[in-house]
């Protein structure tokens, strides 16, 4: 499509957008009496209006039924999480038995590493990407320290980072594959962020997973920035495990519950260690209070504690919205609006003295709902100007703004208006 940097053209794109109506499903903050242009769904998604209904339902059941709500509410609490299985499996490309919800993201990654990071004296290394999200880095370091008393391994020896080439912003696939082959028989685990939080690069998860398995390692993915944003086929890609937060692209509320994937090939493996808890025990026998753990068949068998239903309610509201729309429609809009934003940035770049360098890959297959932009010649004052003028975006030192045009609630008019505000902020 040949784009134009005009309000009329943006309006025309919105008129053709099948998802445009979903903007009205969300509550927007306001600045100067107008709803904001919201670019930070990669940090915290907006609140869907339907969320309150789901939360109120739980609150009313608690008020009217108290403990009996576990069994007699409209959505009984003891199996509330099971309502996620079908819709969530479609979002991440899994079988319903391969997904569950519990805890929060880093907690779940730690628990999954109990099962899938099993170092030996000769096979103990973890491959991750350079500048992984700090929480992942801390997790890797602490996991290695946890095992160090048995094998004497140290983080600097066990953790292998795949580097960007000098002068480049993104990691090349061939470098990932070469590093996996190089580490070879020493490789225990590949665990990478499916979408890099800083650059917005989407990794080739299918190819990397196959390479990790060829080397004899387990392969998992941190999908914090990928779930609800990228077309995933976790089952078909033969991924061993994955986890994601729900509060970014899936709009479930700050710090909310995490989703997990464990491939069905591991469900019957009694040799695979896990930290057990009451809620992962055989559902039909759970209230017999037996001493011996008998795990539920499937990902639910990795659950530990009674689920926080009040936290799950907003997530369920969002998952149902995703089920209405489908990932294919979301990705079609995502690619179109991200491309239009890219065009707008290049057009504004021609009109100002500053230079915009988009460090996110230009290929749609290597990016999703995020463009990370280096603002050469600009500093924090431009970010402050954008925020004061109703553009909610994200600043990363030294001079990068991350822009996430989430297809559920951003419009093509938003992209055009952002360009005009950005230009004014530079020219002032």
UniProtKB/TrEMBL annotation:
Residues 168-254 form the Aminotransferase class V domain. InterPro entries: Aminotrans_V_dom, Kynureninase, PyrdxlP-dep_Trfase, PyrdxlP-dep_Trfase_major, PyrdxlP-dep_Trfase_small. It is an enzyme of class 3 (hydrolase). GO terms for biological process: anthranilate metabolic process; L-kynurenine catabolic process; L-tryptophan catabolic process to kynurenine; NAD+ biosynthetic process; quinolinate biosynthetic process. Its cofactor is pyridoxal 5'-phosphate. Keywords: Hydrolase, Pyridine nucleotide biosynthesis, Pyridoxal phosphate. Its EC number is 3.7.1.3. Coiled coil: none annotated. Pyridoxal 5'-phosphate binds at residues 105-106, 133-136, 222, 225, 247, 278, 306. NCBIfam families: kynureninase. Belongs to the kynureninase family. Homodimer. PANTHER family: KYNURENINASE. Catalyzes the cleavage of L-kynurenine (L-Kyn) and L-3-hydroxykynurenine (L-3OHKyn) into anthranilic acid (AA) and 3-hydroxyanthranilic acid (3-OHAA), respectively. This is Kynureninase. It comes from Flavobacterium caseinilyticum.
């Amino acid at each position: 499509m040949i784009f134009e940097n005009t309000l009329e053209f943006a309006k025309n794109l919105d008129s053709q957008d099948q998802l445009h109506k979903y903007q009205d499903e969300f509550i927007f903050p306001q600045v100067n009496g107008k709803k904001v242009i919201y670019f930070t769904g990669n940090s915290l998604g907006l609140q869907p209006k339907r969320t309150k209904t789901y939360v109120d339902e739980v609150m009313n059941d608690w008020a009217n039924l108290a403990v009996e709500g576990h069994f007699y509410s409209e959505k009984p609490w003891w199996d509330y999480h099971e309502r996620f299985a079908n819709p969530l499996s479609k979002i991440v490309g899994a079988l319903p038995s391969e997904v569950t919800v519990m805890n929060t993201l880093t907690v779940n990654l730690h628990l999954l590493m109990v099962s899938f990071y099993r170092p030996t004296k000769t096979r103990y290394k973890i491959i991750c990407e350079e500048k992984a999200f700090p929480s992942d880095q801390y997790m890797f370091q602490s996991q290695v320290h946890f095992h160090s008393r048995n094998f004497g391994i140290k983080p600097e020896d066990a953790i292998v980072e795949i580097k960007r080439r000098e002068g480049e912003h993104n990691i090349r696939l061939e470098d990932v594959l070469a590093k996996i082959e190089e580490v070879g028989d020493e490789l225990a685990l590949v665990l990478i962020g499916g979408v890099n939080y800083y650059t917005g690069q989407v990794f080739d998860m299918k190819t990397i997973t196959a390479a990790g398995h060829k080397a004899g390692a387990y392969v998992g993915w941190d999908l914090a920035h990928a779930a609800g944003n990228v077309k995933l086929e976790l089952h078909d890609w033969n991924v061993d495990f994955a986890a994601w937060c729900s509060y970014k692209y899936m709009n479930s509320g700050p710090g909310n519950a995490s989703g997990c994937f464990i491939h069905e090939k591991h469900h019957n493996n009694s040799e695979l260690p896990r930290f057990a808890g009451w809620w992962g025990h055989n559902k039909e026998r759970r209230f017999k209070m037996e001493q011996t753990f008998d795990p539920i068949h499937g990902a639910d068998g990795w659950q530990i504690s009674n689920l926080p239903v009040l936290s799950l309610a907003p997530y369920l509201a969002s998952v149902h919205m995703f089920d209405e729309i489908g990932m294919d429609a979301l990705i079609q809009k995502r690619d179109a609006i991200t491309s239009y934003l890219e065009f707008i940035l290049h057009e504004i770049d021609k009109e100002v003295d500053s230079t915009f360098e988009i460090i996110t890959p230009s290929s749609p297959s290597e990016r999703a709902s995020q463009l990370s932009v280096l603002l050469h010649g600009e500093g924090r004052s431009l970010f402050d100007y954008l925020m004061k003028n109703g553009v909610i975006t994200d600043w990363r030192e030294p001079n990068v703004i991350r822009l996430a045009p989430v297809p559920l609630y951003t419009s093509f008019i938003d992209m055009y208006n952002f360009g005009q505000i950005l230009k004014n902020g530079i020219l002032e």
